[in-house]
Design a protein that fits this description.
Helix content: 40-55%
Order of helices and strands: EEHEEHHHHEEHHHE
Strand content: 15-25%
Number of helices: 8
Distance between the termini: 28 Å
Number of domains: 1
Largest sheet: 3 strands, mixed
Length: 222
Amino acid sequence: MGQPYNITMKLKSTGETIRITGQIPSEAWTTLLRFRDEANEFLADLKECENLKVSGTLNWNTTDGLSSEVHDTIKSRDLAMILHHLRPFLLQNEPLEFNRTVNLLQRYIRHEWMGSGFRFLKDLFSGKEFQRQTRITSGDLRVNCERTLMTWINAYEYHRDDDKRRLIEELDARFPAEFSRSLFVSMVIDKVKAIFRFSGVISSLERRGGFAIKFPYYMGDQ
């Protein structure tokens, strides 16, 4: 036996309502529950963090050149904890890797409205949603993208790779280092948001009588 689901979807602009039902096979459901449980452990530790807000501004004028101001930052020990919990969702070879797990659920819930929600979560996790709002480049290097973020993580947090560290040091020579760090931490927090929103979707599928969604919907607004 798998996990049955019952989802009612309503389009806000027209009032159109669609109900979809189905069943997720046992093996797939077990994987989804493992994802949810891993996310819950992450959340329990996250509640111990002192500050999860990250913000900063980048300024330029003809007198002082480029400068930055970081208004909020995460303590190094809290960032280390977050990146530790992020590993099973982030690394490609992990069974609970985020995109792989979202695609697993999407395989059994096939509807264009739900598909738009799944795409939003994957774009939030990958940084594409951030790039739609703003693109930050330095020469031919796009700064706020997944590749540059992973370079930073591997340079300083996961593997402490010397070659990748040199690339980030080159970036820090163009941008104030504290601004670059706040930017990358902000992208990490977007990944955390995507994980918890998707975990919430999994939990919602367990509800007796199903659950309702109003569209536009961004998987976590309920």
